[in-house]
Specification:
This protein has one helix and three strands; from the N terminus they run βββα. By secondary structure, it is mostly beta strands. It has a domain of about 45 residues.
């Protein structure tokens, strides 16, 4: 069953609740104040796929370290910041 994030308008708390797809849009009862008008909010979605990328996330020892590519001379993150003077 998926987990949904809800926000209570009465106490402004955010909480999670596991429920079926059929009940996803129904209001939830807030565990903090007991209000029954908590609405579903958009949260971060997380997926798990049993592949090499997922294995690397779950087992840090299996990761291969990549070396960073050198930056070019005009790179905005490496170039000195210029101060802008108003006209």
């Amino acid at each position: 069953m998926p987990t949904y994030d809800f926000r209570c308008p009465a106490c402004e708390s955010t909480f999670e609740e596991r429920r079926s797809f059929a009940r996803a849009d129904e209001p939830a009862v807030c565990p903090s104040c007991g209000g029954d008008h908590a609405a579903k909010v958009i949260g971060n979605v997380q997926f798990y796929s049993p592949g090499s990328a997922a294995k690397a996330m779950l087992d840090p020892g299996s990761r291969q370290t990549a070396t960073a590519a050198p930056h070019t001379s005009g790179c905005p993150c490496c170039s000195p910041k210029r101060s802008v003077t108003p006209a």
